[in-house]
Automatic annotation (TrEMBL), chain A:
Compartments reported by the entry: Cell membrane
The protein's name: Branched-chain amino acid transport system permease protein
Pfam assignment, any one: BPD_transp_2
GO CC annotation terms, alphabetical: plasma membrane
Domain of life: Bacteria
Bilayer-crossing regions: 20-39, 45-64, 71-89, 95-118, 125-143, 173-191, 222-246, 258-285, 297-315
Molecular function via GO: branched-chain amino acid transmembrane transporter activity
Classification via CDD domains: TM_PBP1_LivM_like
Classification via InterPro entries: ABC_transp_permease, LivM-like
Naturally occurring in which organism (per UniProt): Muricoccus roseus
TrEMBL record, chain B:
Organism: Muricoccus roseus
SUPFAM superfamilies the record matches: Periplasmic binding protein-like I (SSF53822)
Key words, A-Z: Amino-acid transport, Signal, Transport
GO BP: amino acid transport
Segment forming the signal sequence: 1-25
CDD domains associated with the record: PBP1_ABC_ligand_binding-like
Source superkingdom: Bacteria
TM spans (from-to): none
Protein name per the record: Branched-chain amino acid transport system substrate-binding protein
From TrEMBL, chain C:
Species per Swiss-Prot/TrEMBL record: Muricoccus roseus
Subcellular location: Cell membrane
One GO BP annotation of this record: amino acid transport
GO MF term list: transmembrane transporter activity
Keywords attached to this entry: Amino-acid transport, Cell membrane, Membrane, Transmembrane, Transmembrane helix, Transport
Name of the protein described by the UniProt record: Branched-chain amino acid transport system permease protein
Amino acid sequence: MPPQQAVAALPARASSNLRLGLLVPAVAAVVALALLPVFTSGYVVYVANVLLVYVVLSLGLNLVIGEAGQFSLSHAAFYGIGIYAAALGNKLLGLPLVGCLLLAGVVAALLGGVIGTIALRMRDIYLALTTFAFGEAMQWLFLNWEPVTGGPNGLRIPPSSLFGVEILNDKQAYPVVLGVALLMLGATVVISRSRLGRAFRAVRESDVAAMAMGIPVRRVKIMAFLLSAFYAGVAGGLFATFSTYIHPESLGFQTTMTVLTMVVVGGLGSTGGALLGAVVFGLISELLRQAPAVQEMTYGLILILFMMFVPRGLAPAVSRWVRGRGHV
Amino acid sequence: MGMRSVRAALLGGVLAMAGGLTALAQEVGVTPDRVRIGMFAPLSGPSAAYGQDVLNAARMWFDKINREGGIHGRQIEAVVEDDRCNANDLVAAVKKLVEQSNVFALNGGSCSAAVVAASDYVVRNRVPLVMLNASGDGALFPPNDYIYGAFSISQHAAGGSAVEFAARHFNARRIAYVNHDDAYGAWNLNAAKFQAERRGAGLNVQSISPNITDVTAPMVRLRAANPEVLVIMTYARPAALIIRKAMELGYRGPIVVAVNATADLRQMVANGGGPEAFRNVYIQEVLADLPGSARLQWVYDMYRQAYPQLASQEGRPQVYMPYGLPSAMSVTRALEAAGPELTREKFLAALQGLDFDSGVMAGPIRFGPRNRAAQQAAIYIKYDGATMERVPGSFASDWRFE
Amino acid sequence: MDSEVLFLFLQQGIASGIVSGSVYALLALAIVMIFKTSEVPNFAQGEVFMVAAYAALFLIVFYGLPMWVVIPAALLFTVAGMMLFEAGILRRVKKALGEPVNLVIATLGLSFLLRGLVRQTGLGDTPRSFPSLVSTDPVQIGQAMLTRLDLAIVGTAVAVMAAVFLLFNFTRAGRAMRALGMNPKAAALVGIDIRRTHAFVWGLSGLVSAISALLIAPKILMTPEMGHVAILAFAAAIVGGFNSLPGAVLGGFIIGIAENLVGLFVSASAIVVTPFLAIMAVLVLRPQGLLGGRPQMRKV
């Protein structure tokens, strides 16, 4: 085999070994996750629920930014729309849990499609800033559309029901949240490997080249935007299953930046990265509550150090480490 | 040993164990010599100034009680969490305290909107929650069995009282009213409208963002309506901007500044444009006297003694510090009144019956069968930047939860 | 509303809008000059502005220094801090991967770091006032009420804008910065010291931010959250065209005036949403901003 080919073949073989090697721990992890409520406190399960919501948010943001290369900064707005849609679907229409989740995703996706159609005339920084402005405007709307969102009083979310059973605590909600999060994770993998996923990446690398390959660039971009909004909406619906209250304060730019940080720190463009970033950064944030005095500074330092020393994110670093260990 | 005696011994053992178990099945967070209280407040980030020293004040009260021998032989053990003043983190803190630290009761919350986020959880799990300095109207009305708060004053009481003062003391028929477009603002405006209607006064309202940097537009609009009294219900920074702008626009009528902004009066005068701007300013006060006055000196002495290192730092104690005391006093008094066989039920019943003078606040700390807001009284003081003159009488909000 | 009041509101709105707009314009300049040369929207812009004001306050409160020492010291401190950040941190981030999003997150990290630092000083708990060099006595222009301080703010801001304009158009350093913005590789080929120019731009941006901080701090009062104003500067930059310095200035005044007019004619609570509606309106109608050139294709 000529040396060049050998080099080219190596990563593929290594990754198929890697895939097998990862299957067992992955299954073990899912089983352990499923059993979490049995051997931990409700608080730990609450933290797990929140982390899973962040996972779904990160998967969605990674689709539009990481896969399709379109800088969208309005994730918190779609998340909020999902929360309000689910909460109101439950409160006013008496929809069961599954209905609420679907409603949350669909309403967010519809709006995402509309906003995408308008905003995607722009690119790069202009797209980022338009979507940022849209996000801020939505937060203002949440705060001022009192008849619907409760305005500054916030909105109480009644317990959702699944097959006639009311979900009253985090442990009851957890199987739903975990199940849906895994479903979304699976869907992400499928999308990423489908023709659509390839089209996303082609658009990310170059609009012109993608067009030359016969990819309907504009439709693909809007699709990425819409899908990402759907994920955010579902994440909002999940939040509404284990929460009792929502206030517009927590639906601002800061939430978008938190999710963006997760995606970048995890590894932009990689599904595993979005997963890892959400879990690791979510945990760091929760653990930092123990060190209030230096919290902000520590968080800032972590961001800077990551960008200096782990620029491609955790996922590539971890897989390099796993592969390296495999060789030894 | 015969079969029968073995069986009897076994049976006896089982019974003894069962007996032991019932003795052990005490209330959560309570042992014969300890009672565990879960505390939470913003200890980091932008709102830390609302929480850190308030929580410290509550803790120093618990420490004092502990040094004096505790309550019914029990020492108070405080477990502290940072709630970052936002809903998600506050709920995480509360769940950790309840489900992991197994506390008997909660004593925390400085941020009103965030504390409301935990209210359904607290009620569902039947855990007593005594707020720190949050007004938390959203969790107090309608009243439920588990949540007690508004130790400084409820926002409904603050807004209604300010309008009552404007309408009665100045006989005003046109009142300008500036509040925030957040939860606080929604609550105080609710009662203010009620009060204005009752007094037959017109209320010209401008609701501004807490982040506002330029108050020209809302102030010019209010000025155009030619008000007789200007009521400011905002936080400290916007309030100072408004006082200064009122002077710039040539408004010379009375200005009433609500308690939300009056914590640090010296700074307020410096920020608001100096004594010149304070010719006709009245401040709403809920403390028994002014911060640093002789009557409250013991509070500041106690703080200095409890936290000598902290007290030597710039900006300490933080201005809201005293509010932590009436809250902690309510906890210890209710523990006392609940008797030696402590249960949550008894503790809650005792809370409901509290009625005492804290020596810190303007009015008594008083709950009741339908009342969860501790402190309702506000006094008014004419303040020209240096001297203070108490306006006789008290001005109460007539708004009641229906 | 009768025509007299309408006319009064209009005058006041425009006059006050020009005052706050001039500060937004300065901050927008600071953002755009960095973006033009480094392609980084500096998310720590507001915190740089805030730290400059607190550095000055720190010297006044703890050392009792006079203003003629405090002001240059605070300006110098901000400039040095910005250059250090560029040379010590951003350059490494750029070398590590160089994706714009990584640079953005590094500036986001800086914003957290700076806010945490200021809180450590104990000055951040209550709103503080910054001593004003100019009196706040009212001045009437037409029917609009302003203060002497307001006039000083506009005057200084315009002077700084003019200085920046001259610097960019008529000096060697200015030409180097413009060349860097157009094409870094070509700039290096014609002998421009890229590193020095980058550091210079960040320093200059720090200087402009610090000047605007010291100008407006007496007017808006100080808290560690005062960097919030930078959002309005971002809005100004977008409205004007994100890669255009004159656009930033124009955008600043538009946002300032729009805020005031909305506050006067619509409602006070709609003030905060005005800049975002302005952004969306401008970008939908003219995606590159009012004075922005066509956005370039930068995919290589």
